[in-house]
Structure formats: C-alpha cells, structure tokens
Amino acid sequence: MDIRGRVVVVTGAGRGIGAAMCRQFAAAGAEIVVVSDRDEEAAMSVASGLGTAGWSVRCDVAVESEVQGLVTQVLERVGRIDIFCSNAGITVKGGVEATNAEWQRMWDVNVMSRIVAARAVVPGMLQQGRGYFVQTASAAGLLTEIGSASYSVTKHADLALAEWLSVCYGREGIRVSCVCPLGVETDMLDGDDPVHRYLHLHSITADAAAAEILRGIELETFLILPHPEVLEFYRLKGENYDRWLRGMQRLRQKLVRQR
Fold first, then answer.
1. Number of folded domains in the chain?
2. What is the dihedral of CA 50, 56, 62, 65, to 10 degrees?
3. Does residue 226 lie in a domain region?
4. Catalytic center residues
5. Predicted local distance difference test score (pLDDT) of residue 42
6. Which domain holds residue 216?
C-alpha cells in the first residue's frame, strides 16, 4: 500500500517505535497521522513535529471505550481510516510468580487492545472495501522472552490474532501486518538486566525499525522483521523444536548467572 494520501492512526505513539512510525509516515506523504497515546503531552509533542499532517488524540488502549472514542473521532473528522497501527505495548519482568494484576494488565494492553481496535475499525474498512491493520508484536511472539513469561505469552497471542485477521479478512480487501522486532533502543530495554543487555547485541534504533515497518506496509508483507536474523532463528526452531529449547535453556542459564 502506498502511504501517500493515507489516513493513519498509531497507538502508543508518544515515544519509541510508535513516535518513529509517525515521523516515517508523515515524511512519506501520509495525509493525516493521528498520534495516539495515554500520555497526552507526549502525543502532542510528536504531532507538533509532523507539520500539517499531525494530530494528537489521547487514548488508553486498555480501555475499550477510549479506543472506540479514538476511532469515532477520526471517522467524524475525516471520514475514514486507511491504516490502523495497534502499536502500544508494555512489559513486566518475571515468570509465573508475577501477580494476577500484572498478568491482567499485560493481557489488556498487549492483546485485548488489538482485539478492541480491530472490533472498532474492521467494519468501516470492510464497508470501504479496503484497509490495513498493523500490529506491533515482538520476536518474542515467534521465539520467546526469557525474562518475562507474560510478555512472551501475550506476544504469542498478539501474533495469533494478526494471523487470524489476515486469514479471515485478507480476501475482503483488508491487509494485515505483524511487526516482530528483537531489541529496539527504547525505554523498554533495561540496561541493568542481563537479558536486555543480550538484546542490545542485536538492537536497532526506533527510526530504523520504523523504516522497515513502512517498507513492509508498502510491500504488504504480513511478517515484518526489522531484524532479518529472526527469520533464521524461527526456521531453526521449526526444524528441531527440542534442540532449539535446549539452546534456549543454555542461554537462560548463562544470563541468569550474570545477575
């Protein structure tokens, strides 16, 4: 899909990958880039740097009524949404010992936000006969995340939803992409954590990730991999699951010893 002249909505766009995506889309000629974030000041700051294309809307994606309100505002103002980027995401460290409240928050932001966004935008896209839905997941959705069980589980679900949307709506004019990066230099990477320091070995800037996302949208690629090595890791996992698991066990043991 050509980004020029499109109306694009990006959630979690006050910083990190989301903000970089907004800058890429505006520079590539999008007509309107809606910068959405629960941090209203951050969203306004990003939007102000996009010239006439920028427009900020506060939205907490964990609240369905706010996601519905975001979509309604855009449709009332410009009449359509061409591309919706469900980008907002969070992480919580720890395994199964993490609290139920932490697991629920991860589920609400990393999974349910995608579901309610699709619920809000897909009907309009079906009516106009075209549309694009982009989900920012993670390589953890294809592989795993050693330091966070809830992140790994929710990102697997994130990818599964994107696959389902593509299967069900791909023949009806709706394109779907799922973005699965490794480490990206944002405030989600903790330099004091050995697992995150390992991710830094492969980390790229948010702007580099956004450039690959734009390219993936232009090519209408389902699986957008800002780190091309992820495809090789995923292939090795599929070839011999047990061998891959043993390798990940060794890696985890090595990283835990560094703590």
1. 1
2. -140
3. yes
4. 151
5. 97
6. 7-230
From the number of C-beta atoms within 10 Å of its C-beta (0-12, 13-18, 19+), residue 250 rates as: exposed
Cβ proximity of 182 and 140 under 8 Å: no
* Block mean pLDDT (10 aa), the chain, length 259: 97 97 98 98 97 96 97 96 97 93 97 98 96 97 93 98 98 98 75 58 87 98 96 96 94 78
Take residue 51 and report the two structure tokens written for it: 């010239």
Q: Which pLDDT does position 201 carry in this prediction?
A: 62
CATH number assigned to the domain comprising residue 113? 3.40.50.720
The number of CA neighbours under 13 Å toward the Cβ of 36 is: 26
* pLDDT at residue 254, rounded to an integer: 84
